[in-house]
Design brief:
With 150 residues, the chain is an alpha+beta fold. It contains three helices and seven strands, in the order αβββββαββα. The chain has two domains: 93 residues, Trna Endonuclease, Chain: A, domain 1; 40 residues, no CATH class. It has a five-stranded mixed β-sheet with strand order 1-4-5-6-7, with helices on one face. 13% of the residues are buried. The mean pLDDT is 85. This is PD-(D/E)XK nuclease superfamily protein. Keywords: ATP-binding, DNA damage, DNA repair, DNA-binding, Helicase, Hydrolase, Nucleotide-binding. One of its GO terms (molecular function) is ATP binding.
Amino acid sequence: MSFLIVVVILYWWLRSRRKPKLSPYMLEQFLKITDPIPLCGKPDVVWKTRDGTLIVGDYKSRENQQVYESEVIQLSVYKLLVERTQNKPVADYGFIHFKNRNMKKVYLMKEKEIIALYHRYWNVIGGEVVAFAADNKNYCRYCSHKHKCS
């Protein structure tokens, strides 16, 4: 009898350690919204969990497995696009997949943070707000607006 109890406990423990079963829901589909702000994008992948929750993902072809702030912003925008165009719950996290097949879970920004970034961007472009360079100059290397920073 005790052997059976150990087997059942081991079974439930192993089952609880499994990753959630994800199935592809959407692949590189162009999405566009106008409310609450105009945005568009094409998430690399959106997965659907067993309970119907959607999870956004992005593939990176680099070996370096560092997750950059710009990638969190990108996935957060995808999350907002998916939330507004699909009638399903969307997870507050996403996954970045790297070339070596490793993936990292990242927690995404809230809708109000994306809206604030959008308005800040247009205020910088319009000259109403003075831009400032990032602490890490590598972020600025390819920026088309770096000439506007103080």
